[in-house]
Amino acid sequence: MKKDFELVSWAASTNIYEVNTRQYTPEGTFIAFSHQIERLHSMGVEVLWFMPITPISRLNRKGSLGSYYACSSYTSINPAFGNIDDFKEIISIAHAKGMKVMIDWVANHTGCDHEWTITHPEFYKRNEHGLFYDAHGWDDVIDLDYTNPALRAEMINCMKYWIQACDIDGFRCDMAMLTPVDFWMQARTELEPLKKLFWLAELDPLDQPDYMQVFDSAYTWRWMNGAKQCKQEGATHIYALREILGHYQQILPLNCSPAWFTSNHDENSWNGTEYEKYGEMALPLAVFSCTWRGIPLIYSGQELPNHKRLAFFDKDPIEWSAVTKLHNFYAVLLGLRKKNKAFSSSGSPDNLSEIRNSVEHHVLSFKRQNGDSVAFIMINFSQYDLANVEFETGNFENSFTELFSNEKRRFDANFQYIDLKAWGYTIWVN
User: Fold this and answer.
1) Most exposed residue of 12, 59, 85, 309, measured as fewest CB within 10 angstroms of its CB?
2) pTM here?
3) Where are the domains of the chain?
């Protein structure tokens, strides 16, 4: 499939950090969060994705604070977070550090007392009783009607507002497959002359491949669920995971990137933290997310690491400690993506290739290469310590350094031998 829009240049080997403003600090405000940007920048975070920053409807509100995803206006700020100037200040700080800012865009539905229910009731679908409704089982939102050209035009105007008022750098589009693909095509076509943005879709391209003619990146639920099943079944082999990776390689255009993740706001709140889902597999999966072709998504608090499910509709702050134990772990991985040329041409089909190893039912081994820059990655997706694992290097003669241990080794044969601890990983770069 051909993608109709070019990827914005800064996104070729970027990473995205999801900000849950409500739960990030005890204050739950933009100003309070702004004091964390320097720490995140030092960790290597390049893109801040904010969960919806718009006000939340009161009608049919869930819990004490309601869902971010049930908005009452598309062009206002949730007063609990601060005001428009506070958000502009965050963008100013981020941009000054070379970081980007994306906002969450909920196009399929609004909250039940959105201002349009009064000013533009014709924008909504109605059931057989003439009432607004939601077709997906959510009782705090109501569906918009994309057969109405006036709705489409107004929705695009609202998206323009955030580009013009705040100079945002992209949209993460909530449940993008529930909104017609031709609307996203229309929106991106109209917004592209204003500013080239990064577009992330909450959908899996294996299920909705036609949407990848518009979007730059999309979720990888199939991989996420496959990894969870693998762990729950005892991680006896990774053949099914390899098959899933092959499907993504086949379906995605070269200028589209899969988005890899082990947690996000939905997963954490409803399905459990990555440690509940994956246990010891969580860190090897994070290594995979940061080294395979695509874009890693990191959720608020994963650098702690956070072992708590955060309430979705009520105040429930992340329990930050003085030390974020995985700060350096992520800094090493994100720095690798930024500084090592082997990861800088993610759109090239030759940039990533699997390499043979002697324990292929447990170990995923692959190579990233761009010219003379090479990285070899081996990940043990099993509970077993593995000794003398052989992996092919393709007669690439050079001196290599292991990223985490700083061990140095000369590669001067077609293969090397390494030891991998249970759930261990190793990255060798020249």
Assistant:
1) 85
2) 0.97
3) 9-339, 352-429
Compute CA 70 distance to the chain's CA centroid, rounded to the nearest angstrom: 21
The CA–CA distances, whole Å, from 269 to 22, 200, 272, 299 equal 13, 21, 6, 12
Query: 352-429 is classed in which CATH architecture?
Result: Sandwich (2.60)
CB 43 within 8 A of CB 331: yes
Q: Could you read off the pLDDT of 67-79 as tens digits, one per residue?
A: 999 999 999 999 9
Query: Which long-range contacts does 129-135 make (Cβ < 8 Å, 24+ apart)?
Result: 134/109
Taking the alpha carbons at both ends of the chain, their separation in whole angstroms is 35
What is the pLDDT at residue 271?
97
CATH number 2.60.120.1200 is the correct assignment for the domain at 9-339: no
Taking the C-alpha atoms of residue 231 and residue 242, their distance in angstroms, rounded to an integer, is 14
Query: 305: cis peptide before it, omega within 30°?
Result: yes
CB of 41 within 8 A of CB of 124?
no
Which residue spans within 300-339 are E strands per DSSP?
A: none
Intervals of the chain under pLDDT 70: 1-2, 345-350
Q: If you write DSSP's letter for every residue of 385-401 in order, what string do you get?
A: -EEEEEEE--S--EEEE
Per-position b or e across 173-195, b if 16+ CB within 10 A of its CB? bbebbbbebebbebbbeebeeee
Per-residue model confidence (pLDDT) at position 413: 85
Q: Six-digit token pair at 190?
A: 């109209």
- DSSP labels for 98-153? T-EEEEEE--SEEETT-THHHH-GGGB-B-TTS-B--TTS-TTEEEB-TT-HHHHH
Residues sharing a CB contact under 8 Å with residue 30, sequence separation 6 or more, in sequence order: 21, 81, 82, 86, 87, 89, 90
Contact 368, 374 (CB under 8 A): yes
Structure tokens, 159? 């998206």
Q: Which tokens belong to 410?
A: 């000369």
Chain centre distance of CA 265: 11
Question: Is the separation of the CB atoms in 45 and 327 below 8 Å?
Answer: no
Cβ contact 395:412 at 8 Å:
no
Q: What are phi and psi of 111, to 5 degrees?
A: -65, 165
Three-state DSSP state, 313 = coil
**What region does 17 belong to: left with phi over 0, alpha with psi -120 to 50, or beta?**
beta
CA dihedral (275, 279, 284, 288) positive or negative: negative
Using the CB atoms, write b or e for 228-238: b if 16+ within 10 Å. bebbeeebeeb
**Residues 89-101 pLDDT 10s:** 999 999 999 999 9
